[in-house]
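Hey, I'm writing a tutorial for new members on how sequence and structure tokens pair up, and I'd like a real worked example in the thread rather than a made-up one. If someone can provide the structure for the chain below, I'll link this post from the tutorial.
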Amino acid sequence: MSLRRASDLFPWQMFLIGVLGVALSASAQYPGQVSKKSKDTVEMRAIGVLEWTGEAGKPKASRLVPVTVYDGTTLQDANVYLARPHPLAVGREVEYELQKDGTPIGLFDIKNAGQEQGSWVGYGTWKPLPGHSKAASPVLHDEADADSDRPVLHRKNNEGGSEGDPKQESAPSAPSDPDRPTLHKKPPSSDGGDTSSDPAPDADKPTLHPKNSGGESTGATDDPDRPKLHGKTQASDEATEGASAAADPDRPLLKRGKSSGNGAEVLPSIMGLPEAMYQAVAISDAKSRPDHPWSYAWANPGDEEKMKAAMEEIARIALGLKSAVTASPPKRASAKIKAKSVPPAPPPAPLLDEQFRVFELAYGAGATMVLTAHVGDDPATQKFVTLVAQPDLYGNVLLLLKSVTDTAHLDETPRLRLVDAVDVLGDNRGELLFELRGATQRQFALYRVLRGRAERLFVTGGGEYGSASGGE
């Protein structure tokens, strides 16, 4: 059996093959059809922690620490996710919404990114929420202080009067001190030259001459020995850079402020972990979602104090400040012992830097309580405790998570410092975001409280401040 050659085909067969070839060639050049975006497509959601010093809204220094990126199926480590070279979570023009207990408190725009102690951080600007910016309306005059000796500033209105007294008309001032020098406005002339009424100029009086378009002084003579300051213009900058590039094309150029290309303006940042540092949850999501406050409202205000006192007792026992089992008194006491007055019980040992917060992590859910504290004034011997609990059916404390550590073992068992509650998956359920701070390392971890358990949902890889051990 032999293969048929093209010359053996009929003319109509040749025509059909040619039409088919043209159609296939056109379809090969078409890059592909545009598919409509599915309604079920999940937008990525980034979670970070904004750290700053100074005043909220106007920080002295700040940085955004990326925590995780939810890609629709998995929680990714935001410190390495799509790093080209910087991670996606700290890319330029990425905007985060800052929250406190689920309530927005501001926006943070990423301007540039860098590495600090082996971890990526983002630098940017804290902006107010749209419609929440405060208008600048300074009060320059107070009627109550009209008779005081304090000087008052008045803004001049269009009619010539002061802002504090709009009815006041402009009038010639009262006769002043004859020895006081006065300034007179020069009357305009038709040719712009000097008028005959002007006094003769003093030959010894220095004069200032404006520069002409060429940059030279309009004065008759210039002192050749006088030092001059030259301001750099854009043309001179480009000429200098061009000359430097021509001399050495590989020579790096240093520019002040915002540079072109991949560079960015340098903003003040935080180095290390200062004591006066504040933290807030930051969320970046392309989809707008309604606010979901996490604060819990007690039906009975007395229940909050009762639960707090019970958790403080558990914390003191965990820190070794109180024995878990109280010694029972003797069955029979002598008359002499009964006659003696019983001394009052000593006050409970104080818990330092105590924080007690209660969250409602889902609509209609019960209270989730978090208590953090430490004891010891000496930083070398401090002990730390973190408790997560819920009230049980009988009104007692059901402990879900307990973390106890001390200064000597922080790198083995880091301290759990609560940041806030945050909706990581975008499912209207909040998770607890903790900072796992060690002696030289730190990480961030997310815990989900569900069905009477507190399970660790995610933990970052960490860097210079990262730790591989958990906090339970």
